[in-house]
């Protein structure tokens, strides 16, 4: 079969249960077939219709003519020798490359997923955005990062963070569908409380997500304490100010009753002073929240350096003295370029040579 025919087929991994049932009725089958297909794709993680042995051969062939089950290919895997972090480069069916990371913690296995190929948000510390947004990932492509990592390592993923390449709230519909399917009891059944969505602060979509009332953790990449500072590192601030983001977070907390996490990457000499810590504490005063301090994982595209251990500790102490809970995120996979977008970019550059 020509690969273009395959690309043109409709991906059933991106269909939710109701859509699959409806589709079955539309093609003259019983609706319970939709339930079976959902189970086999999302629980048993089959990679082709021919593997769904509970369906007749006739139906499997019929499906194969018009539909597909999207499959990512492991293009490369990088294993950290420091902490067992594994980083994947996945090849998509159209030749694009995305990356995902698997991290082992005491409380389970966590995966960090991409939601877009590239990103248009332009954060200056991030390698994912250097070539802009190429395209949104489909729901099936976001899900398959989990399925392929589980299969490759023979593990069960317990926690998900949407913090890889791309801005999840810029791919809102596909991401929302992903959340519902990954949580589904006939799928992987991963609890919403074990899922974190990280955003640079697309304010209208924070309100939309809050109204969905899914008890996931919302994580805001804040990284600065006033708009002028933040504009320098996160251009989204030209569109939505910090106070608008904070207001939307308060609405989220009210609706979902979950604490919001604020990510604050410490960049040496840019945002890591005692004064910055004080301002951050004032900004978040009284909110049900938590601050994640991230020592910068340097990328070669920009000339930022990581804060030293002492300033990171001082920053944390300053926040805690002012009643704001904070943790310092352990650096994972430093030896395998685990910072967002670095590996994909390295690969794309090597292709140009
Ligand atoms: S940090 Fe996130 S939102 Fe910002 S450019 Fe990178 S991927 Fe996009």
UniProtKB/TrEMBL annotation:
Is Nucleotide-binding included in the keywords of this UniProt record?
no
- Tell me any Pfam family this protein matches: RlmN_N
InterPro entries per the UniProt record, alphabetical? Aldolase_TIM, Methyltransferase_A, RlmN_N, RNA_MTrfase_RlmN, rRNA_lsu_MTrfase_RlmN/Cfr, rSAM, rSAM_sf
Q: Does the keyword Methyltransferase apply?
A: yes
Principal cellular location given in the protein's record: cytoplasm
Q: How is the cofactor bound?
A: Binds 1 [4Fe-4S] cluster. The cluster is coordinated with 3 cysteines and an exchangeable S-adenosyl-L-methionine.
Q: Give the CC-aspect GO terms.
A: cytoplasm
Q: Which cofactor does it need?
A: [4Fe-4S] cluster
Kindly list the places in or outside the cell where this protein is found, as annotated in its UniProt entry. Answer: Cytoplasm
Specify which residues bind [4Fe-4S] cluster according to the UniProt entry for this protein: 119, 123, 126
Query: Which molecular function term from Gene Ontology is one that the record holds?
Result: 4 iron, 4 sulfur cluster binding
Catalytic residues (positions):
99 (proton acceptor), 340 (s-methylcysteine intermediate)
Q: Where is the Radical SAM core domain?
A: 105-335
- Give the GO biological process terms: rRNA base methylation; tRNA methylation
- Recorded catalytic activity of this chain's protein: adenosine(2503) in 23S rRNA + 2 reduced [2Fe-2S]-[ferredoxin] + 2 S-adenosyl-L-methionine = 2-methyladenosine(2503) in 23S rRNA + 5'-deoxyadenosine + L-methionine + 2 oxidized [2Fe-2S]-[ferredoxin] + S-adenosyl-L-homocysteine; adenosine(37) in tRNA + 2 reduced [2Fe-2S]-[ferredoxin] + 2 S-adenosyl-L-methionine = 2-methyladenosine(37) in tRNA + 5'-deoxyadenosine + L-methionine + 2 oxidized [2Fe-2S]-[ferredoxin] + S-adenosyl-L-homocysteine
Further information in the entry reads: Reaction proceeds by a ping-pong mechanism involving intermediate methylation of a conserved cysteine residue.
Please name the HAMAP family in this protein's record. Answer: RNA_methyltr_RlmN (MF_01849)
Question: Which protein, by its recorded name, is this?
Answer: Probable dual-specificity RNA methyltransferase RlmN
Q: Which gene is transcribed and translated to give this protein? A: rlmN
């Amino acid at each position: 079969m020509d690969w273009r025919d395959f690309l043109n087929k409709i991906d059933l991994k991106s269909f939710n249960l109701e859509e699959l049932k409806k589709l079955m009725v539309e093609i003259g089958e019983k609706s319970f077939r939709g339930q079976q297909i959902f189970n086999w794709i999302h629980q048993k993680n089959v990679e082709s219709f021919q593997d769904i042995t509970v369906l007749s051969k006739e139906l499997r062939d019929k499906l194969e003519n018009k539909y597909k089950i999207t499959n990512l290919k492991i293009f490369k895997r990088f294993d950290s020798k420091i902490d067992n972090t594994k980083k994947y480069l996945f090849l998509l069916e159209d030749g694009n490359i995305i990356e995902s990371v698997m991290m082992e913690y005491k409380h389970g296995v966590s995966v960090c997923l991409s939601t877009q190929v590239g990103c248009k948000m332009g954060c200056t510390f991030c390698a994912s955005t250097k070539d802009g947004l190429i395209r949104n990932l489909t729901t099936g492509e976001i899900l398959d990062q989990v399925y392929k990592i589980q299969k490759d390592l023979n593990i069960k993923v317990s926690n998900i963070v949407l913090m890889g390449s791309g801005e999840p709230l810029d791919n809102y519909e596909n991401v929302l569908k992903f959340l519902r399917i990954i949580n589904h009891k006939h799928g992987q059944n991963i609890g919403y409380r074990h899922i974190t969505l990280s955003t640079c602060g697309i304010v209208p979509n924070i309100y939309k997500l809050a109204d969905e009332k899914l008890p996931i953790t919302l994580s805001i990449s804040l990284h600065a304490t006033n708009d002028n500072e933040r504009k320098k590192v996160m251009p989204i601030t030209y569109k939505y100010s910090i106070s608008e983001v904070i207001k939307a977070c308060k609405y989220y907390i009210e609706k979902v009753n979950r604490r919001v996490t604020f990510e604050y990457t410490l960049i040496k000499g840019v945002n890591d002073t005692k004064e910055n810590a004080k301002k951050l504490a004032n900004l978040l005063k009284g909110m049900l929240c938590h601050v994640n301090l991230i020592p910068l994982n340097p990328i070669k595209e920009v000339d930022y350096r990581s804060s030293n251990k002492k300033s990171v500790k001082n920053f944390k102490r300053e926040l805690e003295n002012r009643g704001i809970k904070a943790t310092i995120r352990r650096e994972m996979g430093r030896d395998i370029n685990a910072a967002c977008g670095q590996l994909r970019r390295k690969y794309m550059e090597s292709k140009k040579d």
